[in-house]
Amino acid sequence: MPGLDGLQVIEKVGSESMPVTVFVTAFDRYAVKAFEKHAIDYLLKPFDQTRFQSTLSQVREQLSRSENQQLKQQLQTLIDGLKGRSSYAERLTVKSSRGMTFLRADEVDWVDAAGNYVRLNSRGETYLMRETMNSLEQRLDPEMFLRIHRSTIVNIERIREIRPLQHGEHLVILDSGQRLTLSRSYRNKLDELSG
Predict the structure, then answer these.
(1) Which H/E stretch holds residue 163?
(2) What are the residue boundaries of the structural domains of the chain, listed by start?
(3) What does the alpha-carbon distance between residue 156 and residue 175 come to, in Å, rounded to a whole number?
(4) Nearest residue to 120 via CA among 84, 86, 85, 96
(5) Fold for domain 91-194?
(6) Residues 117-149: pLDDT tens digits?
(7) Cβ atoms within 10 A of the Cβ of 48, count?
(8) Could you tell me the CA-to-CA distances from 51 to 25, 35, 44, 46, 56 in Å, in that order?
(9) 104 forms bridges with which residues in the sheet?
(10) Which CATH number is 6-83's, of 3.40.50.1220, 3.30.2010.10, 3.40.50.2300, 3.30.499.10?
């Protein structure tokens, strides 16, 4: 290629913006660099029909995966739009020895970690649910719930007051009088509350 070689073209365009790429060259010294730039294959001249067909199959498979991923994303967007509602949990199901309890998400005052469980605190009652804080946080609407500590999620509507403490922490006081700690590592969440 006049002016630039294949590696320089990828550097100019950016490897994340490149389409599926196969290097075809008579020099094997660029192979490692080609694969570092996410090339699908590296054809060394001269090559035979079998080698070419193998590379072509890899390219087709990669293109098919990319198209399938784009199609999945488009379908998910369409499905979310058709639902006409949030994909966040509206109700939480808590299993116990007495049976199952159904809590509306907006009835939960705060959540705290309890080993392999989370404790849902709602209207003076506590319910244990086998789930991690991270997975529950993903299921709860971020417009309604805020992670304020690695082991605490709070319903924003229940917050009455926030007071600064030492070392960058804050005291979060709920309508019920419950006191929770907003840890230093979650301090940026204050911006979300005031915004």
Answers:
(1) strand 159-164
(2) 6-83, 91-194
(3) 11
(4) 96
(5) OB fold (Dihydrolipoamide Acetyltransferase, E2P) (2.40.50)
(6) 999 999 999 999 999 999 999 999 998 999 999
(7) 8
(8) 14, 17, 10, 10, 9
(9) 91
(10) 3.40.50.2300
Q: Which of 12-21, 93-102, 138-147, 170-179 has the lowest mean pLDDT?
A: 12-21
pLDDT, tens digit (0-9, with 9 covering 90-100), for 54-105: 989 988 888 777 777 777 777 777 766 666 555 789 999 988 778 888 999 9
Decide: pTM greater than 0.85: no
- The phi, psi pair for 43, rounded to 5°, reads -95, 120
Rounded CA-CA distance 130/168 in Å is 31
Is residue 142 within 8 A of residue 131, CB to CB? The reply is: no
